[in-house]
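Q: Got a minute? One more chain.
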Amino acid sequence: MRVTRRSPVLTWGWAAVAMLLLAGLPTAARAEEPAAPPAQAAQDEKGTFEIYGFGQADVIADFKQNNPDWYDVNRPSRLPNVANQFGNDGRFYMSVRQSRLGVKGEIPTAEGPVKGQFEFDMFGVGKDAGQTTIRLRHAWGQWKQIGAGQTNSTFMDVDVFPNVLDYWGPNGMLFFRNVQVFWEPFNDGSSNARVAIEAPGASGDAGVLADRVELQNVRPRFPSPDFTGHYRLGGRKWGYVQLGGALRKIAYDDLLPNDNFDLNGSVWGWGISVSSNVKLGADDTLRLQLVEGAGIENYFNDAPVDVGIKSNPGNPVTPIVGEALHDLGLVIYLDHNWNSHLSSAIGYSRVDISNSDGQAPNAYKAGQYFSGNLLMTPARNVMMGGEFQYAHRENNTDGFAVSDYRLQFSFKYSFGYKFGG
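A: Always. Here it is, folded:
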């Protein structure tokens, strides 16, 4: 399961908003005054402050079944791993959890502009899974080349995400908002490079030995941050291409030092991603991503655990070790504009996992995802439409596979206002 890092203290966020408002927007110099020196000119420029968001209602007919904690998204990893795990087929849902509110601003200074963003939606995850409750999405700032806070992982490419109604979207893409400190040596608006250290985290699967006391007393430890980076080459008529990478260390500690086993150890996780938006014409964009790695499931949009147990024959003291699970992700989506008011997105995605020999027969092995929609914007800031969604799950070795079919209809009403600038 995905490890989600959250910061529920919204008081800090609203305090930041208040500070931006109290800071005010400096008044520009009058035309008849002599030109100000560069430092003064920077101070006299107006800053900007924007509040934005939308309210959205999702109406979903699920013809099969999935984990009820994830009722309003179609995630292959949340489909049943045995027949009728969540009851009989057929559910009807309504949700407003996609609704969002955010603020962002930029203030010029003599030493360069300072910008920041704070945003949340109502989609509860982790211990709040299935709840309509505040979930932090972005809380970050940047000055010159240095930025910090929670935002999209430097490893991912958010522009791969297609124009779909499903909140979670294609399972095979990298999609993870993480706490990080990043350095961006250049960004010309179309090409950029960025490297970062990100908050570590991972999950493990004790598999067929999950009920053993020895494994119940093994705990994860993260001795270093995750190292991530990407380079994007853009500015081309046909689109752009981006190369990303990640490296991480995942340790695990045995908290029963006086027994007959030593289960301490560590594994390395790594990943490489190639992604692109290809312009096929004025009305068509092809969104592509291919990801390969091991122990980076936490960065995928929908993938299970990062580490599984593996037998270690011939070693009675350390009979099992951890294995970073190999993973492969794929996204192929086409966004098409029929005219100024109608658009569609259609595509396919998948995730494949190389299971360790200690995982259970019903452990997640592969997931597939497909969707197609027709969206309408009858008026400015209004969107409504329908979408067909398909998800498929395959287990490790027991031969069980299951599919889910859904229809989703959504109604979205956006708003925003910008001050200054």
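A: The CA atoms of residues 294 and 314 lie 25 Å apart.
Q: Perfect, thanks.
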